[in-house]
Amino acid sequence: MKTSIYSKIACLATSVVLLGGSAFANGPKPFPKEGIWRGVFKVSESQVPFNFEFKGKDSKSAVLTLLNGSRRDDFHVERRGDDSIYVKMNTYDAALVAKVEADGTLSGEYRSLVPGFRGNSLPFVAEYGKNYRFVEPGKNVAPKHDISGKWEIKTYTKEAVPASIALLKQNGNKLTGVIMTVVGDTRELEGTVQGDEFELSGFTGPSPFIVRGKINDDNSITGEQGFGIYKNLKFDGQRNEQAELPDPYKLTFLKEGYKKLDFTFPDLNGKPVSLSDDKYKGKVVIIETIGTWCPNCTDQTVFLSPWFKKNQKRGVEAIAIGFEQKDDLEYAKYTLGKLRDKYDITYDILFGGIADKKVVAEKLAALNKFIAFPTTIIIDRKGEVREIYTGYTGTVTGKYFNDYEAKFNKVLDELIAEPVPQLASTKTENGK
Questions:
Q1: Which residues belong to any copy of the Thioredoxin domain (predicted)?
Q2: CB 3.0 to 4.6 Å from 360: which of 232, 296, 370, 410, for a disulfide?
């Protein structure tokens, strides 16, 4: 069982490169103009718009910021030659190479840098000074419906999948929202409602995502979701304020007869690390299965890294087990090292192998199955698994994130308050 389509999205997105320059005949060519830009990816016969802001005039200060509703994602810009720039997508192994044409527009492509995925790319063009997403100012069509609220979404795939939930907010023509699934969320999407049709798109570094749909007379919706160069999936939806996803605390659990998790993986220096190491005995341990290609894993890391630094002294340890797009420790040192440095991770990072759900299930054999990156496993002071949370819902999901954070803290507080087992306490006192 390979990674989910949402995970694949993440994989592909892991690659972007922008080139930029100006059309001066003499001397080095300047960066693109500072200000707001509107870009458009060409995906097969479809167009996926995105917005970004460019600031800075040299490699020391230049930043490209992707704009999605209230979300902002910053990427450092490097000059490559005298007429191009290189924008690495931070921890995603990807980059954008683009060029300023004679008319001042940018043209380039979004390109995968992952070994084995090289060659996958999406062409794009961008125009300076345009801040709209889908429809030019003055050309809006009055919306016939307000689709704000919670929608239960059924996606049509070859494999049966649980329904997803769309949380939408409409203000006139403007539409924002997020789609939640059992494995995570799409991050914030931005778009428009025109008459009885709507569109949403998102581009935060991983592959661009597009939703196009129609609002029917019975107030249901139908449409199609597009995932970069991978595939399009048809869907229909019904407004349902009572809709909920399957309980993320009940999807993944230990097989009958198991109480503990057992593994040994190398850290980024190649040193074997196991839960049986003295460092973890008598501690509450948070295990995260992640991948640097996975946007929900990145969002979870943004949450966990500062939490851990604040709480470690209370008797907590954490381990991130990275499953990457190449089964090679040297490659993992690069990708996971980038993640560590970007988010100032001070807990242990191990390399688990290739990013394949079947591989994870085999290597963490006590689990009934492996469904999603990330999955959070919380272990008590006795070394027993007490909670497993499948997926991750980011801050854009509002109440869902708040509920996750509250329960996470409640569970950790309770486990930290439990007594340290005598054997572990004695070994700690004796320094053994």
A1: 254-417
A2: 370
User: At how many degrees (to 10) do helices 295-311 and 399-417 cross?
Assistant: 40
Tell me if 180 sits within 8 A of 167, measured CB to CB: yes
Contact (Cβ atoms closer than 8 angstroms) between residue 406 and residue 414 = no
* Closest among 304, 298, 397 to 338, alpha carbons compared: 298
pLDDT, residue 423, reads 66
Cβ neighbours of residue 90 under 8 Å, at least 6 residues apart? 73, 75, 205, 338, 342
Q: Is the pLDDT confidence value at 142 over 60?
A: yes
In this structure, what token pair is assigned to residue 150?
């919670």
Given a contact cutoff of 8 angstroms between Cβ atoms, the answer to whether 46 and 60 are in contact is no
First to last CA, the chain: 42
* Structural domains present in the chain: 9-128 (2.40.128), 149-239 (2.40.128.120), 264-396+403-430 (3.40.30.10)
For residue 382 the two structure tokens come to 């006795």
| 374 prior amide bond cis, ω within 30 | yes
Q: For residues 106 and 100, what is the distance between their CA atoms, to the nearest angstrom?
A: 5
What is the rounded distance in angstroms from the CA atom of residue 231 to the CA atom of residue 240? 27
Span 190-233, pLDDT tens digits: 999 999 999 999 999 988 999 999 999 999 999 999 876 556 88
Distance in angstroms (rounded) separating the CA atoms of residues 88 and 76: 7
**Pick from 131, 125, 135, 109: which is nearest to 53 by CA?**
131
Q: What is the pTM of this model?
A: 0.89
What span, in angstroms and rounded, lies between the C-alpha atoms of 390 and 166? 19
What letter represents residue 381's amino acid?
R
3-state secondary structure of 310: helix
pLDDT tens digits, one per residue of 363-422: 999 999 999 999 999 999 999 999 999 999 999 999 999 999 999 999 999 999 999 998
Give CA–CA dist 79/397, Å, rounded.
Answer: 37
Rounded to 5°, angle at Cα 39 from 70 and 192: 50
Summarised one tens digit per residue, pLDDT across range 290-340 is 999 999 999 999 999 999 999 999 999 999 999 999 999 999 999 999 999
Cα distance between residue 210 and residue 53, in whole Å: 20
